[in-house]
Amino acid sequence: AAKESKNARHIFFSAPLNERVQTEMLVETLLRAALKTGQLELHYQPQICPADDRLIGLEALVRWPNEKRGYIPPGEFIPIAEKTGLILELGQYVLERACKQAAAWRQAGFDFGQVSVNVSPLQFRQPSFASTVRQMLSAYRLPAPMLCLELTENVFVDTGEQMVLDILSELQNIGVQLSLDDFGSGYSSLSYLHRLPFQELKIDRAFLADADRDLQKEQLFQAIVGLGRSLGLRVIAEGAETAGEYALTAAHHCDGMQGFFCSPAVAAQDVRARIEAFHKSRPARSDRMEKKR
Ligand code: C2E
Ligand code: MG
Ligand code: MG
Ligand code: MG
Predict the structure, then answer these.
(1) Which of 61, 127, 208, 214 has the highest count of CB atoms within 10 angstroms of its CB?
(2) How remote is the CA of residue 149 from the centroid of ligand 2, in Å?
(3) How far apart are alpha carbons 219 and 216 in whole angstroms?
(4) Whole-angstrom Cα distance, residue 50 to residue 36?
(5) Binding-site residues, ligand 1, Cβ < 6 A
(6) What is the predicted pLDDT for the residue at 2?
(7) 31, 81 in Cβ contact below 8 A?
(8) Which ligand places an atom closest to the C-alpha of 74?
């Protein structure tokens, strides 16, 4: 037994795992401090209707500034926040900041459509989640349809179908928009997608990448757009990086798209300028001018 435990200890403390555990502990400590002192920022990525280049929404994406690295990408700390439960605090912070910003934009007469917030499975499952959403909306006097909650297929992984349905319908009753994010990238919920009260489907970037240069990819992309459409959902394509990919989202009548071609996520105060810059880069469009008048 002594030998076994010595072996186990040896395996547990073998360098890579040990390093990983230490990094995670460090990130957790630093993230906790960052949350406490309000260091986390939100950036907003425009969602554009490719038929007329119009702004239809803004997705809030969390940013963690770092002296040495500029910003630490969420992909490096969201999984740790999820593992440690810190995501609950982080999620609450993001939701509040996004509602506050949306209310300020509305006050300023900026027509941004909707603001979209990512919700992690743990946050979604919290019994108090729906009431928190309700409270935020009323605290900032934000009309419910101006808030869109993005969920990934991961919410279906550890949560029973009935529970998912119950939470979703509670949120639907509040009147917020519900979006299924990264569609096609994970666990497939195709079998009961038609029973879930989503209004929006976001097609994972993997399906759009190079689809303008590869017929098979284009056909797959088109099929997924068609699937969303046939379910009556607003279809948003993620990750158009080139003019060709952008044109493809228009050709297949996506309701919206977001991607570096139009704009990356930027600080709230830079959003309007970025959209103007995008419009200036586009051929003049009578339909867009119409909206402005
Ligand atoms: P997501 O919700 O699917 O967000 C879209 C991600 O794609 C963002 O990465 C965005 O910057 C990136 N992106 C947008 N356009 C393009 C493009 O044209 N090309 C490429 N290559 N990428 C593009 P980001 O900000 O690094 O966020 C990554 C993920 O982290 C998000 O994926 C989301 O799952 C998660 N995340 C970010 N903020 C939050 C948050 O506040 N709460 C939660 N729970 N998750 C968040
Ligand atoms: Mg998202
Ligand atoms: Mg996504
Ligand atoms: Mg994603």
Answers:
(1) 208
(2) 9
(3) 5
(4) 40
(5) 45, 61-62, 73-75, 78, 91, 94, 118, 120, 150, 181-182, 205, 239-241, 258-260, 264-265
(6) 47
(7) yes
(8) 1
* 3-state secondary structure (DSSP) of residue 69: coil
pLDDT tops 90 at residue 52: yes
Q: Is it the case that residue 287 has pLDDT exceeding 70?
A: no
Residue 85's φ and ψ, nearest 5 degrees, are: 85, -10
Q: Which ligand 1 atom is at minimum distance from the Cα of 204?
A: 3
Q: Which of 230, 284, 271 is nearest to 48 (CA)?
A: 271
Pick the residue whose CA is nearest to atom 42 on ligand 1: 118
pLDDT per residue as tens digits for the range 145-186: 999 999 998 888 878 889 999 999 999 999 999 999 999 987
With a threshold of 0.90, tell me whether the complex ipTM lies above it: yes
Phi-psi region of 113 (alpha: psi -120 to 50; beta: other; left: phi over 0): left
Cα–chain center distance at 122: 15
What rounded mean pLDDT belongs to the chain?
Answer: 92
Please choose from 99, 202, 238 the residue to mutate so as to test ligand 1's pocket, defined by most ligand atoms within 8 A of CB: 238
pTM score, whole prediction:
0.93
Residue to probe by mutation, ligand 1, list 47, 61, 92, most atoms within 8 Å of CB: 61
Q: Which residues pair with 234 in a beta bridge?
A: 200
Alpha helices by DSSP H, the chain: 2-12, 15-36, 74-84, 86-107, 121-125, 129-139, 161-174, 190-193, 215-230, 243-251, 271-281, 286-292
Q: Report which protein residue has its CA nearest ligand 1's atom 45.
A: 118
